[in-house]
Structures are given as structure tokens and as C-alpha cells.
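Q: How would the C-alpha cells look for this protein?
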Amino acid sequence: MKTIFRKIIFILLGAIYILNFSSCTVKDDVTLIVPKTLSEYKQQQKEFVDAQLAVVYSCVVGYNKGDFKSNTTFDSYKSDYLTVLKADSAIIYKADVTIEELVAGNKSITTAGKAFNGSLWLSDRRPLNDVIVAADALNSATVEGSAVGQVSTEAKTTFTNAITAAKAIRGASATVDRQVADAVIVLTAAQKAFNDAIIK
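A: Here is the predicted structure in C-alpha cell form.
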């Protein structure tokens, strides 16, 4: 009888130990979340809108990092984004603005913001563009033939293909600085080979 009683006591003590241990670990995992105030929301949104307005106003079409990619869509994307940014700015400065209105204003700029920012270059392509412009000019000025100043069809085709490949890298949205630098090296080498192939 005593043995059974001792076993029951042992089991109860083990259960109490396990419950105490698990409750301690649960308490350690609790994270306290402090909600933001209205003024904090307003300040954050104002900083974001002001920064985006600065980007839009200073943006140009070109090949530098942060430049807009296309003349075709620049004016419309810029206009659309400015419209929603200015509307959101008006909401921020509204005297009795609520957090819900700030959230709605923030959501309203999403579509135009994605379209505009998605059309900006991630890297500086100007060095590659400079080489492409020079290569295009040389290629256009050099005709195929066997006379002095002319070049073989094979050399012309090879150089034209190298220019086309460089333009593809220049125009790819995800091209990074290292790829630009590599493409400059490749096209510069192709231009030298083309120059060497011109009949003297």
C-alpha cells in the first residue's frame, strides 16, 4: 500500500514539475505590442510622401541609377503618381484626420507608386550606353566590302551581334552594376576587333 502511495506521490510531483516548467517557457515567449499614436502615423506617412515627391520631381529619362526607363510612359506614370501623392499629402494635413483615413490614403498610392518605381533603373547604365552609342556610330559608318575602309560581312555580323547583346543587357530591368561593367568590357573588345578587321 505504501509503495502504491509513494508511486502516486512521485507521479503527482513529476506532473507539477512539468506544468511549472512549461508555464515558465510560455511566459518567456510573450511579446508586448505597443500601438502607434495618430501623430506617429502622420509623421511616418509625411516622411514617405515627401521622399517620394522628391524622387518624382527630380526624375528624368536616362540610363543612370534611379532614372526613368522610357519616354513612352514617363509623362503618364509621373502624372498619375504625383496626383495620388498630392491627394495623400492633403489627407495627412487634414485637421481631424483619423488613422483609418491615413491607412486608406496610403493604400491609394500603391498602384501608381508600383508603376512609377518599377520603371526606374536599378543600376547606372551610362558607361554601357556610351560604348553602345560609339559602337553603333562605327558600325553605321562602316560598310561591307573588300575596299579600303570597308569590312567583311562576317566581321560586320559579329560586331552587330555584340552591339545587340549589349543593348539587351542595357535594357534588362534586373541588370546590376557588375553586369554593366562586364558588358562594357565585352563590347569594347568587340569594337577593337571590328576596328582591326577594317581593311587598311
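Helices lie at 2-28, 38-58, 71-92, 99-108, 110-117, 126-141, 153-171, 177-197.

The first helix runs from residue 2 to 28.

Upvote if useful.
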